[in-house]
Write the structure tokens for this entry.
Amino acid sequence: AEAREDINEDSSYWGYTDDIIFQKFLKNLHTIARKYRDSNFAVVVKIHPRSIDGTESIFEALIKKEELPANIRVSIVKDVSTQLLIEISHLILGTTSMLLIEAAIACKPYASVQIGLRRKDEFILTKIKLSKTILSSAKLLFFLKYALMKKKKSIKKFPFMLNATQNIIDIINHLLYEK
């Protein structure tokens, strides 16, 4: 999951904030972890590079409040390569993050989670019908159960590429400016 730079933004505009989404994610993961006590769950929260100071403490407080069972481990990181995180992750969640686009390019399971959304969904992969945004806590729970507990691989594995975002930017710049 990636925390956006506007973590403290008022939820009245979009209908949610990243901390609200993270809290719902933790509650759903807690539900799954209680049912699957023999499974271990590792969660890495990637803080947006431009997020405000104190963002980590907001997430740490939410983790502490949820009183997670021993089979869930949560790490909060800021200065770790997104490419590395994508490579080692089984599932990538976010709201409208570039990280989700990079996950799609790397053929990793991903989901845009915007529970409480009050506006038109602006996530580009939803707009072009490559993704469906998760809009309720119940759908998030269903998605997590399926994505985390199913052993079959439904996404074709392609070779991992470093600098996916920069590669896309270079292609776009080439198309726009070098005719």
About this structure: Confidence is low (pLDDT under 50) at residues 4-8, 152-158. Residues 18-35 form the longest helix (18 residues). The two ends are 38 Å apart (CA to CA). The helical segments are 11-14, 18-35, 55-66, 82-88, 98-105, 124-127, 137-149, 164-177.
